[in-house]
Every structure is written in C-alpha cells, then in structure tokens.
C-alpha cells in the first residue's frame, strides 16, 4: 500500500541514518567516542585539493561551472544530447523534480518499496499518490533507485517502464560504473538520472549532486534551482575528484575488500547478508533492535528500519582503529 511506514509516508517521520546525538544521550559518550556506521558514505573521503582564495570569497563563476560539467560528462560518459546540471546535493533536485510533471488524470507515481524515502515524500508534497506496486491503473512517473537503498537491488534495461516519466537515482552507482543505466535511457524521452557526489567520494558535507537528462527537462529544473546553486569550493573539488580515475579505481578495490571483511565479522556475530553495496551492507538478524543495542553499548551506531524487525544496515569502518572498535562491540 502507498502508506507503508519508512517510505516517506504522510504523518510519519522520515527515516534516515545519523541521529548520533540521540545515541550519545542514551548510551553515553561524546560524538568523537562513537563509530558512526549508520550511513552509506565512503569513510575514506577524496583528499581535498588546495583551493584558490576566491573559491570562498567570490560568487561561483561560469568557467568553474563549465569545468565541473566537462569533468562530469567525461567521468560518467554522458551520451550526446543529454545535459548535466550540477546541484547542491542530490536531495535538492529530488524535492523539485515532481513539480516538472504536469498533473495527469491518475496523479500517481510508482516507487518500488522499500527504498530511499525522500522520493516518496517529494512526490506527496507535489500532490501525487505513491504506489509501491503497479496494478492495472496508469501512473504518471516511476522512480527506480539503482542500486537500491537499502537492499542493493540493481535494475536492468528490461525492467524499465515503457512509458511515462522516469527518474533513475544512481546515487550509489559509482561503485560499479559499468552498471549505469545512462546508455540505456539516453534515447528515452522524459527521463532523468540522478548522481550523488557525497556517497562514493565521501564528501557529503560538500553538498554536490547532478541531474542528467534531455534539455527540455534540464532547462526548467535549472530555473527552479536558481543561480549559484553550487558553491565555489564544491565546483573546484568536484571537478578535481571526478577527473581522478586512479583514486576512483583504488577506492572501488578497497571498498570491495572492506565489504567482505565486514560480512565475515557480522557472520561470526550471527547475522546473515541480506543485500547492500560495497558502501553499505544489509544484514538479517533474529532481532535488529537487540543487535543495534549490542553495537551501541560499544559506541558503534548502526541503522535499523521501521518496517523490518530483522534488518540492520552498516556502513564501512574507515581505519584499523575503527575496525577494532567494531570487533570489540561485537565480541
């Protein structure tokens, strides 16, 4: 049903990772005492390049924006005919995209659940009904998170809807760029692909995201976001990171190794792998609340979901000290 908890429903708190301050209040300690594994952000971020002083003092200029767009096109091999719109994080366009749609007779959007709940919340704010399962009624739009959060499901070309507005959220796809659906959707009308810089490059606080799509959709979205949507530091850092292919390749290899290590630790603690990506792992336990509390007593914060009593999700530790803290919490 459209009103499932944890999927951005009316009257329910939006469920996200984080909440470390509340964990400190309940289990003690200061923020620096805790290992926060409640998000899927790369714990070893891209090293910040030296920034020119005017990145902080001047309004972002068109040349810096153009360099970032060129870097994004090259990094993701954006097909000709599609435009790239940098934004202040992926959440900003998620909130605005539903307003691009002209309200049709059905007023419905299909969002397979469970998934990242901001999409459903945004469409409801625009007056749409969210249907996590398709029946014989038409829908105006479909949102696919690829790979999905929290279970890591990937979508294939054959699973894409034939008609209607399509949003493909590839916030976690940079771990496996070969799985991107950009080549598939390049010839589809009314399709947008979202990219998140903060997840793979580990700089979520920079607030940088991208929307890729045809000019007739990008133009009105650009008007919605307004001028200077992306900060000067984000323009410079983003361009440098997207062009650093050696760092990206080494990072993918490290993430794969660390994900395997995490799986072994959790298996020894009685959890079984239920899905995920190399940036976050989803485990099935007999009691997710008990497992979260077990970890919290060792000052390790994890993610539970309001719609499952068995699922618990963990990000990756970033260094050997973090790994030791996790092992001690599980012991």
TrEMBL record:
InterPro entries: Aminotransferase_I/II_large (IPR004839), CobD (IPR005860), NHTrfase_class1_PyrdxlP-BS (IPR004838), PyrdxlP-dep_Trfase (IPR015424), PyrdxlP-dep_Trfase_major (IPR015421), PyrdxlP-dep_Trfase_small (IPR015422). It holds the Pfam family Aminotran_1_2. It catalyses: O-phospho-L-threonine + H(+) = (R)-1-aminopropan-2-yl phosphate + CO2. PANTHER family: HISTIDINOL-PHOSPHATE AMINOTRANSFERASE-RELATED, THREONINE-PHOSPHATE DECARBOXYLASE. Gene3D superfamilies: Aspartate Aminotransferase, domain 1 (3.90.1150.10), Type I PLP-dependent aspartate aminotransferase-like (Major domain) (3.40.640.10). One of its GO terms (molecular function) is pyridoxal phosphate binding. Residues 83-322 form the Aminotransferase class I/classII large domain. CDD domains: AAT_like (cd00609). This is threonine-phosphate decarboxylase. PROSITE patterns: AA_TRANSFER_CLASS_1 (PS00105). Keywords: Cobalamin biosynthesis, Lyase, Pyridoxal phosphate. It comes from Aliiruegeria lutimaris. Decarboxylates L-threonine-O-3-phosphate to yield (R)-1-amino-2-propanol O-2-phosphate, the precursor for the linkage between the nucleotide loop and the corrin ring in cobalamin. The keyword Lipoprotein does not apply.
């Amino acid at each position: 049903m459209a009103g499932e908890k944890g999927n951005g429903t009316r009257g329910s708190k939006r469920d996200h990772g984080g909440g470390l301050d509340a964990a400190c209040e309940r289990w003690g300690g200061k923020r620096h005492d805790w290992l926060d594994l409640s998000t899927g952000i790369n714990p070893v971020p891209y090293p910040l390049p030296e920034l020119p002083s005017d990145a902080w003092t001047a309004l972002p200029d068109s040349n810096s924006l153009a360099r970032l767009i060129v870097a994004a096109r090259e990094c993701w091999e954006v097909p000709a005919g599609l435009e790239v719109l940098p934004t202040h994080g992926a959440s900003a366009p998620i909130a605005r995209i539903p307003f691009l749609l002209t309200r049709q007779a059905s007023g419905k959007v299909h969002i397979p659940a469970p998934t990242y709940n901001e999409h459903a919340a945004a469409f409801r704010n625009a007056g749409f009904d969210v249907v996590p399962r398709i029946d014989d009624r038409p829908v105006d739009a479909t949102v696919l998170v690829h790979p999905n959060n929290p279970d890591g499901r990937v979508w294939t070309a054959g699973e894409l809807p034939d008609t209607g507005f399509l949003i493909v959220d590839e916030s976690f796809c940079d771990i496996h760029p070969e799985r991107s659906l950009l080549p598939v959707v390049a010839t589809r009308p009314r399709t947008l692909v979202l990219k998140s810089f903060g997840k793979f490059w580990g700089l979520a606080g920079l607030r940088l995201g991208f929307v890729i799509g045809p000019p007739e959709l990008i133009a009105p979205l650009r008007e919605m976001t307004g001028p200077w949507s992306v900060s000067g530091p984000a323009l410079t850092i983003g361009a440098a990171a997207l062009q650093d292919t050696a760092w990206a390749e080494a990072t993918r290899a490290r993430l794969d190794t660390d994900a395997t290590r995490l799986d072994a630790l959790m298996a020894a603690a009685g959890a079984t792998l239920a899905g995920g990506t190399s940036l976050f792992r989803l485990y099935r336990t007999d009691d997710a609340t008990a497992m979260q509390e077990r970890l919290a007593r060792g000052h390790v914060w994890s993610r539970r979901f309001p719609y499952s009593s068995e699922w618990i999700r963990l990000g990756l530790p970033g260094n050997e000290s973090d790994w030791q803290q996790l092992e001690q919490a599980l012991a």
